[in-house]
Amino acid sequence: MSILNVNTIQPVGSAQTVTVSATDLKIGTTTLQSGSIILGNSVLSSTSTGISTSTTSTRNTGVSTAIGSLIYNSTASALQVYNGTQWLTLLTTTAASSAFTATGGTILTPGNGSKYHVYTSTNPFVVSSGTITAEVLVVGGGGGAGTGGGGAGGIIYSAEVPLSPGTYVATVGSAGAASGAQPSAGGDGGNSSFANPGGPWTMSGYGGGGGAARSAVGRAGGSSGGDGADGNAGLFGNATCTQPSHPALPFTVANYGHDGGGCWPGVSYNGGGGGGGAGDVGRFSDVPGEPGNGGNGGMGAAFPNFNRTNIGPAVPAPFANAMGDAGYYGGGGGGGTNIDSGTGTGLPQAGLGNLGGLGARTGNVNGTAAIGYGGGGGGADYQGGPGSTATGAPGIVIIRYKL
Hints:
Elements: E1 8-9, E2 18-20, E3 24-27, E4 30-33, E5 37-39, E6 42-44, E7 49-50, E8 52-54, H1 56-60, E9 70-73, E10 78-82, E11 87-92, E12 101-103, E13 106-108, E14 114-119, E15 123-129, E16 132-139, E17 155-163, E18 166-171, E19 192-196, E20 201-205, E21 254-256, E22 301-302, H2 308-311, H3 317-323, E23 328-329, E24 396-402
Parallel strand pairs: 8-9
Antiparallel strand pairs: 1-2, 2-3, 3-4, 5-6, 6-7, 9-10, 10-11, 12-15, 13-14, 14-24, 15-18, 16-17, 16-24, 17-21, 18-19, 19-20, 22-23
């Protein structure tokens, strides 16, 4: 056997020098050492092989790439192989992460493959480990009633909320106060929110607007309150809801809020308008053939993943029943009458609970409150009644993610 002992090889016309020493073999500035061959990002040794790392743009500049070439594409976060005509992805990779662990609120695992954190009062949500994308539902507190029905709390929802270790804050909005003795407007509901102070971002469900006092326009809010009952024709200017104007966030959200009902033009002795609901506008009072009657509250919005089966164990029975199987939240309150006696002729346009409160249809009777989270209060009778005692309903914040 023959042995060639050389220290340096300098090919003619090449800038690359092969240098041999007692410990290293170098080709240009690339070192092959300790039983390893290192070329660029590729490593070959007696114990391991490291795949070359490349970006998509660098990969595509290759000339005469050999069939079977294997790289880790850092642009695509994928292991790829060349088949002679194109690069094929063998495996898309993500960084290994620990199991997602979080605390806060009332925790439910109803058996549908998901975990829920239900907040009926303001408290932190703490992620100890892991990252995940969650569904979050935020419902503002409902407005209290005047003679117009209270507006529902505004709702913001997203299925793309990124959660990672840290402390978040779930804030639950309070119920709007009832008007009490007339003439007074109902109180506005409180804002609910889910916030990442380190983001920073905040999902806010604005409190519902209070129902108007006599001869006044309903108050603005997540959904606005209904207009007040009026002794004269001509009060038709229902307030604008604010939830749809929520600022943009770094993930996709949907906002739910509608205007409260006004009074029908040309009718004397108007009843109160219905409060706006998360799913629909509040109804005008005094629709043709029904002078003096209150308008129905707007319907709530349905969120099936947050229905009574999944959330019911964490909340009082009346609220769970209002959710129903469809998961309704944020119905508007019904308006009060402006009828001294007798019975109105109209039929309800909506059902009970968060389908929206009913406008009053008999003399000296208040409208029906919308039972359930974010619901608006029922409007007071205009004609000498004691005023509304119907507050709005409180808000709620719910977080849902896959187990």
